[in-house]
Write a structure and sequence with these properties.
Blueprint: H1 8-20, H2 22-30, E1 41-46, E2 51-56, E3 59-60, H3 62-66, H4 71-74, E4 78-82, E5 92-95, H5 96-112, E6 120-124, H6 129-141, E7 144-147, H7 154-164, E8 168-172, E9 175-177, E10 180-182, H8 184-192, E11 201-205, E12 219-221, H9 222-227, E13 238-239, E14 243-249, E15 257-262, H10 284-293
Parallel strand pairs: 6-7, 6-8, 7-14, 8-11, 11-12
Antiparallel strand pairs: 1-2, 3-13, 4-5, 9-10, 14-15
Helix pairs in contact: 1-2, 5-6, 7-8
């Protein structure tokens, strides 16, 4: 990613380029990404149908842009810094190499549990490093992730699992919010009792020593599943229009609306090596992937 806007004048100039020649502008930005196969046509569209495809024929895996391409020059550079809920506990950092290793091990664990390209995985957990690692692991093997805010009710979670036809739920045991510990796994159990028949596995990241309900054969411990896995996992080749994740938009009236976001969607949130991007919201699922790809 090379474009970094440093002034209002540069922004206005760049904006005009994107308006006057959108195909040329976005092709120039996409050229800074790593592609398995370059695209045949930048934009194919027909508003009458409607049918819109960007970078048609292009092949890539977004995690190779987020992680692999940085390993030669930035393997030891910090990729993420995580601050825990409790102020007296130490923060945790992951270099690009460490993050790549954890993503590959988690991806291999998901494959071992039967997750494959095209499967849907629901995340219902607090803002911990495993959320990001799990999202990237899904993208690594071509699985589609859907992040549900870990404050929604069991009914809301069940609706989103059913709508996305998820095969797996990845959750934490509890969600630390200030001095409170929200029983996340309990909510998952309640949701799955509402007819979520597509769920075969619940992968649980334990963040406390508290006891939780455990369903034999269905529930798996994150640490036990990931620890012994190989740190090598080849990224699955994806088409530019393959689905990357499902973003369910919260509406005040009626049912939530789901957006299916393809691999090719590119956000230009740019971070230089000397700057940090601070995120405290559940917008992690729309913000962190493009930042790591930068």
């Amino acid at each position: 990613m090379t474009l970094q806007i440093k002034s209002l004048a540069q922004y206005e100039e760049t904006y005009q380029k994107s308006v006057n020649d959108p195909e040329g502008f976005w092709a120039e930005q996409a050229n800074t990404f790593t592609w398995r196969k370059p695209w045949d046509k930048t934009l194919v569209w027909d508003f009458a149908i409607p049918d819109i495809k960007w970078f048609a024929g292009g092949k890539l895996n977004i995690t190779e842009n987020c992680l692999d391409r940085h390993l030669l020059t930035k393997a030891d550079q910090t990729a993420i810094i995580w601050e825990p809920n409790e102020p007296n506990l130490p923060h945790k950092t992951y270099s690009y190499q460490e993050l790549h290793t954890e993503v590959c091990k988690t991806a291999n664990a998901l494959k071992e549990m039967g997750i494959k390209k095209g499967d849907r995985v629901c995340f219902y957990m607090q803002m911990i490093p495993e959320l990001l690692i799990g999202m990237l692991a899904c993208a690594r093997i071509g699985a589609i992730h859907s992040v549900v805010f870990a404050g929604f009710s069991a009914n809301a979670l069940a609706d989103r699992i059913k709508d996305a036809a998820c095969n797996m739920v990845i959750c934490s045991d509890f969600n630390a919010r200030g001095t409170k510990y929200i029983p996340v796994k309990q909510v998952v159990d309640e949701a799955l009792a509402m007819g979520c028949d597509s769920i075969k596995t619940v992968l649980v990241k334990k963040t406390t020593d508290e006891s939780i309900n455990w369903v034999m054969d269905r529930d798996k411990n994150w640490d036990e599943a990931v620890l012994s896995q190989s740190p090598v996992c080849e990224a699955v080749q994806m088409d530019s229009e393959d689905m990357l994740f499902i973003l369910i938009h919260l509406v005040l009236l009626g049912n939530p609306k789901a957006w299916c976001i393809p691999v090719v969607v590119i956000w230009f949130i740019l971070v230089s090596p000397s700057k940090m991007y601070f995120n405290t919201k559940t917008a992690i699922f729309t913000g962190v992937l493009p930042i790591l790809a930068g």
